[in-house]
Write a structure and sequence with these properties.
13 helices; Carbohydrate ABC transporter permease; MetI-like; transport; transmembrane helix; membrane
Length: 277
Amino acid sequence: MRTRKSARAGQYLALLAYLVFLAFPFLWLISTAFKPPRELGSLHPTWIPKDPTLANFRQAFDEQPLLDAALNSLTAAVGAAVIAVLIATPMAYVMARHRTRLARAATGWVVVSQAFPFVLVIIPLFLVLKNLRLINSVPGLIMVYVVWALPFALWMLVGYVRAVPTELEEAAAVDGAGKLRTLVSITAPLLAPGIVATALFAFISAWNEFFFALVLLKTPEKQTLPVVLTHFIGAEGVADLGPLAAAAFLATLPSLVVFAVIQKRITGGMLAGAVKS
């Protein structure tokens, strides 16, 4: 019994250390965002600002078009998430229900494609978008984000589809429902947690993405939030730390809010009781 309690205490201690490790950058970011310049340059930094101020936030909005950049990021992230889910859901259904050699090869290619570095695909993507006249446009960026998020979204949804009992689809087929009707009316509602989780992944990936946006968007009014954040760093590499921390803190809030709102749907067991044994 004593050994079991010691093991449990060790697990909780390790979990606490891991949470502190994850939370430290974000907490320090919040602290920095509210510190005045004299505290930012102090040789003895403190966790809690001695004289908290909102000047960094005002300066950040005065120096850079954060609202326009946030709107561009939101448009790209939401568009990529919706389109990726709409494409990946029927593809995942076919790959999960028809386990042919072609489906297995496609699954393997999905996994392998995630190992491709950004630099390897940016030139072909740039040439394709140039021919389509979508360079320096948010729709072109959405297209890139969909292509980049689709393989992992497909891989995630295949696992969720396989978790849906085939007895439900067989019962629908007996009642005369076709494949499309079964997918829309039976399988898709049961896939809601998986669809939400996949959409969240695509949204956060697009919201935080920097490299593609930096290469494809040239005019300041079309740049996304991660690209605009780099403007707080001067030509000599010296960062305007206070406004940068304030802007970065605001940039992390949408991801946190989205996750907090839909986390119950991600963890909810919507398949519970769907099939009676």
